[in-house]
Amino acid sequence: MSDRQTQILEAAIRVIAQDGVRGLRIEKLAAEAGVSTALIYYHFNDRAGVLHSALEFINSQAQRYTDNGTSPADPRAELEKTLMLEIQDNPDVRNNSIAWGELRASAVFSDNLREQLRTTTESWVDEVTTLINQARDAELTHPDIDATAAAERLTALVEGLSERWLSGSITVERARELVSGAIVAELGRI
Amino acid sequence: MSDRQTQILEAAIRVIAQDGVRGLRIEKLAAEAGVSTALIYYHFNDRAGVLHSALEFINSQAQRYTDNGTSPADPRAELEKTLMLEIQDNPDVRNNSIAWGELRASAVFSDNLREQLRTTTESWVDEVTTLINQARDAELTHPDIDATAAAERLTALVEGLSERWLSGSITVERARELVSGAIVAELGRI
């Protein structure tokens, strides 16, 4: 991806985080990114193309936080770190998290993003499943764990707690505490 | 609440479930409810008043599913039943769940509903905490459970899994299986 494309997608996430998916207009995005509308159409075709690419971009950024390319020395600690990185009170994580929640919420009403959202969710679940299996193999979990179900629950919990945090029902600290406790509930004490 | 008010709020939930919070216009609501716009203004003052009352109404309906006024004979079974009632593929539950998710998502962008949403969330968590404490007292959980944290997680998980279900990332059956498994992870096997 070119720097210009990255610049446009970063701007798209800021616009979605500020005004929601329904507030994303190409003119507004062009102004936020400091580029022409023509360049946006050139790279992304249309508004749906921007949303698709924004979803991929959020996912790739989340992987960038988590994927350092090596097999982790302590997979359980890595799992905790991975999940915690989604709930942090810094502007980039907050914007990514709001935009992700908005894309999820808009898929309830429109079929456009559903397939891609399902695939992206599965790839996140797979990543977490791998860490849980690595933790089990290193005897850092109870032995009869259902890694896939635990991964589905932990990631869905991160989504549910993120929405509570972002909508002001709980603090970011409480959301993080609850995720930590969920790892213990799912994997057992060590 | 009068039958007429109930009729308007049921219509509000259908409109929100179909078009989102941002699609709720008084004219549209009047048409859906089969009443005059004047009657809506009379009962709810303005659009914000409709949203407030709709949130209360969803919450009271959820309590109607769950609250039969007696102390349950099997509080753990009651807990499972309570959580499962939120994830069912029937039109009323689905509409309530979509509308709840929409109200939550819109609170990310606007301060209007935040306070009420926080209070409503807390009352739901309290209700589930009570059931977990009753289950612990009946020795239907492991003894050193943190009932409040477990209740916060189980309800946030129900919200996260509902959004995955409603946005087409998982089936309703899988969402229900995962909630069942979460109860075992949080409370222990019996």
Please characterize this protein's 3D structure.
The structure is a homodimer of 190-residue chains. In chain A, 75% of the residues lie in helices and 0% in strands. In chain A, helix 1 packs across helix 6 and helix 4 packs parallel to helix 7. Chain A is elongated and about 55 Å long. The termini of chain A are far apart.
> Strand-residue fraction of chain A?
under 5%
Q: Tell me how many strands of chain A there are.
A: 0
Task: Kindly report the average pLDDT value of chain A.
Answer: 92
Q: How many strands, what sense, and barrel or not for the largest sheet of chain A?
A: none
Provide the low-confidence segments of chain A as ranges.
none
CATH homologous superfamily label of chain A: Tetracycline Repressor, domain 2
* Number of helices, counting only DSSP H or I runs of 4 residues or more of chain A: 9
Q: What percentage of residues of chain A falls in helices of 4 or more residues?
A: over 70%
Please state the second-level CATH architecture of chain A: Orthogonal Bundle
Tally of structural domains of chain A = 1
Order of helices and strands of chain A: HHHHHHHHH
Query: What is the oligomeric state here?
Result: homodimer
CATH class of chain A: Mainly Alpha
State the shape of chain A. elongated
Largest interface: A-B, 42 and 42 residues
Structural class of chain A: mainly alpha
Could you name the CATH topology of chain A? Tetracycline Repressor, domain 2
Cα-atom Rg of chain A, whole angstroms?
18 Å
User: What's the N-to-C terminus distance of chain A?
Assistant: 42 Å
